[in-house]
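Sample intake sheet
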Amino acid sequence: MKRSTPVILGLLLACSSTSFSQSANLTTWPKGASPQEVGKRVAARFVATPHTNFNRPTPPSVITYPETCAWYGALKFAKATGNDALKDDLIKRFEPMFTTEAKLIPPVTNVDWAVFGSVPLQLYMQTKDKRYLELGQGIADKQWAAPDEKAKAKVKPEQMLAFEKGYSWHTRMWIDDMFMITALQTQAYRATGDAKYINRAAKEMVLYLDSLQKPNGLFYHAPDVPFFWGRGDGWMAAGMAEILSSLPENNPDRARIMKGYKTMMASLLKYQAPSGLWRQLIDEPTAWEESSSTGMFTYAMVVGVKKGWLDKKTYTPAARKAWLGLVSYIDENADVKEVCEGTNKKNDKQYYLDRKRIVGDLHGQAPILWTAAALMN
């Protein structure tokens, strides 16, 4: 597979065992591979990208979650680098949501659509414009309020049972949920300081950990799908890093979440490919190396090293190797290669192995932006 040529030689040298042991840090990088350079390129690409419909040519009916997650990442990167011009561009992208593009705001009927609220909440924290707070907080509140009549028609009995036990009615026991729900509720906590939001997210995370995490630290895509799908596990890893970054030390669920996080990180070390990437099916040696899952695992690992949750001597080399491997998958247009297409659950191993490998899908751009911001912080 052809990769971006300007930095490839430096990246290959940086990933070699000799140079790697001599520069196992997260602060110095080969030319073209620093988080400042990479994040700026990928963020600019996002700004220039129209609203996308999972890489399909037809316009989306609402903002899709890959765009939401990339938008959120670009805002975090703008803040981490003090890039006011980028922040202004991201604000301009949002302004039509209050007028001509209001119809693109997703209704709060499922986790994939509700995560959109994390963007206006991030905008509020950076601008203090209360329009953003009202919109984002309203979405976070609806995720825990009883579903309206229109939404209720699509809610499954087990989801209503979860709601009656104090969980979100968006609960469906797919591991993807543990970024979507967690990002929104944690953002609402950060924006308002109201502990109910972070407490909700923590309770939900513990439910998923207790129900879905396997002894090896990884997660099946869903209880009835016994495969360790890369991006699904990536959502879980990123979600744990996201909530732990803001969860108060005295929260009763923190220890359980930290245990789940550390167990997963230790397992990921065992499955990292020599290139630094992780595979479409994490434990399948013949599976193709997939970039979006790698970005999410790299983000979770970088946050853990930076926060002191993970042993630096053990995890810094792995995180560095992952970042450099990931950067080599960015092409000359600042699009990420080898991104698994959007994937529903299916109890069929070959289904996962045969998923399309896309260039420029925002599933791949988003975690690069999260990670660039985390490295800058």
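Comment: The longest helix spans residues 195-212. The domain at 8-376 is CATH 1.50.10.10 (Glycosyltransferase).
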